[in-house]
């Protein structure tokens, strides 16, 4: 009986490890220079300086995972596969830019690239390699004590042109559509994804504006989320507005 129980436990452990390993996709990763502490503030997602410092600077450019901007803000667990240098945990990186290298899915900041290693000496070795084999999987983003935040683009021109990016989206779903609605007569307008994570509209609705965001999962599940707080009537370029809501992880 004891032998059978032991065999069962070993079998369950093996199945768990096999399932976990099967969730990862094999690829390669590189890093870009001058990124010891943070990423670039001119990334293709349109996050600006926020995209350089979010997640402590553990950010990445992506090629196919950029997905014409839909992938902006997505989080991935990335770990290199050389057991002599690499940790089992790897690093969680946020997509903030578009870029590609030789057969790579990720171009990490130098900081994030080194954090895949077991030790500082191992990190130095990884950095010397320049490009390493990795495995990755998508994971939920987590921003404790932060709500989804609207950042009005500096190029916005009240009341004729409105552009904004959405910051601090938790979870593992994509924002695939955004609507702006007048709070008085509930007339809504579907916005355009200009580039990256930047949503735009000419002739935006007037008055205080209610935002609606469509969240889409890889399993096909879709749901609309409506923030508690509105964009004020006299919104201003460069300002940030707390929506008062967050996605449950």
TrEMBL record:
Pfam families: DPBB_1 (PF03330), Expansin_C (PF01357). Residues 160-243 form the Expansin-like CBD domain. The keyword Ligase does not apply. It comes from the Eukaryota. Gene3D superfamilies: Expansin, cellulose-binding-like domain (2.60.40.760), RlpA-like domain (2.40.40.10). Keywords: Signal. Coiled coil: none annotated. InterPro entries: Expan_Lol_pI, Expansin/allergen_DPBB_dom, Expansin_CBD, Expansin_CBD_sf, RlpA-like_DPBB, RlpA-like_sf. Belongs to the expansin family. This is Expansin-like B1. It comes from Hibiscus syriacus (Rose of Sharon). The lineage of its organism: Eukaryota, Viridiplantae, Streptophyta, Embryophyta, Tracheophyta.
